Amino acid sequence: MLSQKMLELGKKSSVIREIFEYGRVRKAEIGVENVFDFSLGNPSVPAPQKVTDVMNRLIAETPAEVLHGYTSGPGDLKVRTAIAENIKTKFQVEATPGLIYMTCGAAASLTIALNAIAEEGDEVIAFAPFFPEYRVFVEQSGAKFVPVSCKNDDLQIDFDLLEKSITPNTKAVIINSPNNPSGVIVPEKDVIKLAALLNEKQKEYGKEIFLISDEPYRELVFTGEKVAYIPAYYDNSFVCYSYSKALSLPGERIGYIFVSPTMKDSSDVFAAVCGAGRALGYVCAPSLMQYTISECLNNTADVSVYEENRKILYEGLTDIGYTVIKPDGAFYMFVKSLEEDAYKFYERAKKFELLLVPSDDFGCPGFVRLAYCVDTDLIKRSLNAFKELYEDYKND
Amino acid sequence: MLSQKMLELGKKSSVIREIFEYGRVRKAEIGVENVFDFSLGNPSVPAPQKVTDVMNRLIAETPAEVLHGYTSGPGDLKVRTAIAENIKTKFQVEATPGLIYMTCGAAASLTIALNAIAEEGDEVIAFAPFFPEYRVFVEQSGAKFVPVSCKNDDLQIDFDLLEKSITPNTKAVIINSPNNPSGVIVPEKDVIKLAALLNEKQKEYGKEIFLISDEPYRELVFTGEKVAYIPAYYDNSFVCYSYSKALSLPGERIGYIFVSPTMKDSSDVFAAVCGAGRALGYVCAPSLMQYTISECLNNTADVSVYEENRKILYEGLTDIGYTVIKPDGAFYMFVKSLEEDAYKFYERAKKFELLLVPSDDFGCPGFVRLAYCVDTDLIKRSLNAFKELYEDYKND
Known about the structure:
By secondary structure, chain A is of the alpha/beta class. The first copy, chain A, is built from 14 helices and 12 strands. In chain A, α6 packs across α10. Chain A is globular and about 65 Å long. The interface between A and B is large, with 79 and 79 residues.
C-alpha cells in the first residue's frame, strides 16, 4: 500500500531523536538545569542583529508581491551574483552566478547534487564518522552508499582504505570539514592528497569522480586550522553550503550549491542540478531569506560562546582522563567510550544525567558525540558528572 | 557522467519559460505596456497586510534563535494544531495535528505525498489538462504517469474514460480543483461520483487507491461554485495545500499535507510522509513562515482584482466570438485555439503582442491558457488585440 522504504524511514526514529525525547521527559521530572543534554546540534546563539535589521528593512521597503514573489528556479540573480563575488573574494577561485543554485538548506543542497549526478549502479563514498542522513540521501538518489572508515586515533582520512574503496562505479566522494559528528577538520595536506588520488583514479577509469564538499560548519573553526576550499584543489567539485549554522538560521532553510567552473561540462552539470531541484519539488529557495542572506555574506552569528564551550569541555574532559579527538571546529566533540559498546556507555552516562550520543549511527563505533552548542554554565556544571561517570568505570 | 533524466529535465525549458523569455525581450523592445503577457501564473496582488503585521511582530518579539530555529520535521506543533482546528471549522471534517505535515509549498506537498505511497510499477492518474510538473513529480516517485482526458466541451471528468483507465496498478488519482490550467471547478456531484467509482475499484482490486487533492487555488473562486473538500467525500485522501496563491506568498514556499484521519492506516501513511520528506531533503518548512501563516488562516490576499479581470476577459472574449471554457476559479482561462495546432495559434497571436500558452504541455491540445493575474488595464487594452487576431483568422 505504501512505499516500504519511506515507511521504514519515517518509523525508524534516530537514536538522537530517542535521546532527545528521553531528555524532554527527564527535564520535566528533575528540572531542565539538572540534565546535561549534549544530544542536539541546534545552534544556541541568535542570528546576528544584521540579519534582523536587513529583514526589517526589506519588509518595510519592498512591495510584498515582489519580496514574497517567485524568484527564478536557481534563485534571484542579484543574490547569486553577490554570492559568486563573495566566493571569489574569500577563496580566490573563479565563480559565476550561472553556476550557483539557491537551496532550502544543506540537506536540499546534498539531495539535489546527488540526484543530479547519480545513476543506478553508482557508488558514493563518505568518510566515517558521517552525518547519518548521508546514507538516506545517497540511497534515495539510487546510488549505493559506501562508508570508508577514518583512522581510529585521529579520525582523519585513511588513504589506503580509501584507495581500496574506489571502484569504476565510484561517482562521488563526500567530504565534510569541519565534520559533524567529530568536529575534525581535514588538513590542507590531506585535501591535496585526496585531490591527487581522485585525479589518478579518474584517469585510470576514464571517468569523472565528483568531490562534494558539505560545509555548513565552515565558519565554526576555533584552532586556527585552515579549512581548505575544495574547488581550489579539485576540478570536479561541488560546494554544498547552508546558512543554518553560520547565521543561526536553521529553521529558515537557506543555502546553495556551487558548481565549480573548473568542473567538466559545468553548464550541463548545472542544468542537471536544476532538473533535480525541479523533480524533487524545489520550486525556489525561500525568497525573503534569499534577499536577507545576500546582504549578510560577511556576517556570522557570535560563535565565541562555542569557542569558550569547546575549551572548557575539552580541557575538563582530558583532565579527568577521557580520550577526546582534537575538535577543531563545528560544535561537536568525539569522546572515546569507556567500554567497547558505546550504547552501553550512553546508558550508564544517563545515570549521571549526561545525554551523549553513541557513535554507531555515525558509522564509527566506540565513541560518543557531544554537541556543545549549549549554555556555558551547563558545561561547567556537567564536568562533575563526567568525573563521577569516569570514576564509576574505574570502580568496576 | 550525469543523471540523464535530470539533465534532460534541466535542459528542456518549458514552453511557458520560453514565452516568458520572449516576453522579456519583446517588452524591452516595445515597452512593457504594449505586450499583453498572459503567460505566467504569478500572483499580482500583495500579501494581506495582516501577513506583514504578524511577521513584523514575530521578528520584534521572538528571540531569533527560537524564531529561526529548527521546528520538528513535520512542523511546529502549535502551527499544525491551528491548521487542524481551522480545517475542522471550515470543512466540518475530522483533523488532527498528528496528520498534518508542513511543507515548502505545493510542489513539495505533491512530491512528498507521491514518494510516500509510490512503488515501482504503480500508476498515478491525473486529469488532462494538468499542471505539467505532475508528470515530473509522478515519474520521479517511480510511478507511471497516466493522463486521462477530460470532456472536450467543458473539461470536466470523463467517467467512462476514467473507469477504463483504472487498473490493478492504479495507486492514486490527482484532482486539482480549481484547476490550473483551465480554471474549472469539479462540481460536487462529480466528486461524489468519483468517490463512488474509486470505492468500487478499491473493492474490486482489494487494494487502496488514494485521492490526492492539489488545491492551492481553493480560495480563488468567483462564481459561487462550491469547491468540495475531498476528505469529506472519500476516505483515502490527501490534501496538498499551499499558501502561495491564497496569501500571495509563492516565493516563500509554505504549505502542508493533510492526511485524512479516515484513511486506512493513517498513522502509517503519515510516517511514510515523514520518511519521504526526510529522503527528499526537506528538514522542516521555513520556520518564520510557519508561524506567520498560522495566524493568517482566515485571511486571503485581495483577490477581487482577479474576479474583475476574469469578468472583463471572459465577457470580452466571448463577445468577440471566442469559445472559452467556463472559468470558475484560479486565475486561468482556457480558450479554444482558432486552428487545430495551438502552437501555431500562439505564434500568430504573438504578432498582435498577445502572449498565450499553447495547451499541448497541459496534455490537452487545441487550447491556449490565459493567466489573468495581470493589471486590469492591460486586460482592457488587450481586447482590441484579441479582436484583431480573431478577424485575422476570419480573413484567412
